[in-house]
Amino acid sequence: MAKLESNFRNMVLVLSGITMFAALALASVYTFTKGPIAMAKIAKQQNAIKNVLPPYDHIDAEPVVKTEGLESTKTYRAYNKNNEFIGSAVETITVRGYNGRVGVIIGFDKTGKIIDYFVLEQNETPGLGAKMVTWFKTDKGKQNIKGVDPGVTPMTVKDVDAITAATISSKAFLGAVQNAYNAYSANIPEK
Q1: For residue 64, how many other CB atoms are within 10 A of its CB?
Q2: pLDDT score, position 190
Q3: CA distances from 30 to 23, 37, 71 (A)
Q4: How far apart are CA 72 and CA 125, in angstroms?
Q5: At CA 92, angle to CA 160 and CA 103, rounded to 5?
Q6: pLDDT per residue over 137-172, tens digit each?
Q7: Partners of 92 in the beta sheet?
Q8: Where are the domains of the chain?
Q9: Can you give the C-alpha Rg of the chain in angstroms?
Q10: pLDDT tens digit string along 7-16?
Q11: Would you give the DSSP letter of residue 128?
């Protein structure tokens, strides 16, 4: 086989071929993994809803969705077998984290107290803001938000101990919790 002459035209042709091959390979990998990634996100969300609520029989078929700018909430109301409201799981997304989006699901009982929370997504600094995954569940000082009624105790860094050296991440997380409570209280089913 003859060796290609090293000139500008041949270099452009070879690099264009390599680029097209790489683009085709990336596109096929994206197409192949798109479905499983979406299924994993749905499974993670469903698991989070189960973990933040007390045992329930069913939830509303469609969540109540509210969007304000880039932030949103989805409220999933839960009922027992007698169709009595037992609480809500509220998924909230904020873009105010140190590194952007923070997605959390917070469970509220029928009186408005926080049952538990689960961080669905965050890109905060490892060892600092990323501590939000467990920080606000720790029984130390005023860190633990479980059992707190955000209608009585505001979710601010003045009222809840923030993550050390991660005030922006703490404010984003606590703001998301307050947004979730606001969505919960606006969507309590009538008796």
Answers
A1: 16
A2: 74
A3: 10, 10, 27
A4: 23
A5: 85
A6: 988 889 899 999 999 998 999 889 889 888 999 999
A7: 73, 104
A8: 52-186
A9: 23
A10: 898 889 999 9
A11: T
